[in-house]
Amino acid sequence: MEILRAEPSDANEIHHIMSVTSSLLEDKGWYCIDTVDYILEHIMDQDKGIVFKAVQHGRIGAFFIIHYPGGADDNLGHYVNLGPEDLRKVAYMDSLAVLPDFRGKGLQYTLMKYGEDYLTPTSFCHLMGTVHPDNLYSLNNFLRLGFGIVETTRKYGSLPRHIMYKKI
Predict the structure, then answer these.
(1) pTM here?
(2) Which residues form the N-acetyltransferase domain (predicted)?
(3) Among the CATH numbers 3.30.2320.30, 3.40.980.10, 3.40.630.30, 2.170.130.10, which is that of 2-167?
(4) What is the pLDDT of residue 94?
């Protein structure tokens, strides 16, 4: 399994992985699907974020989007009372999904750790994310990586979410 930076030509396949993942969930509130444009934006614009893909035998089995919210009003850094300068140092562990036949290989953890290692030498030192409280698999991966729950609230159209935070 190789972890590579996603390319524009990967956007539709990444969106397909999102759709497949969502369709298999009993509770659709666990995962929010992004648009192809959002995915492309994060592949092509280094000021918006970065997208990684896990590839085996030429096939994408999982992906991970990291989002840089900048000074946006909805920056999750407000949950930990970051000031304006530190808000620009926030990176979201934004969207990650693994195809069913690639599960059981620790790819979610591996991709999140890879993303954190990628961010460590950059100015992004406040890592944040959200996870549905009942999604124990994702929650446990955040916790294994040293994230803590800073608040439980409603996000994304009133869906319950833990707000996760880690400083690197």
Answers:
(1) 0.95
(2) 1-168
(3) 3.40.630.30
(4) 96
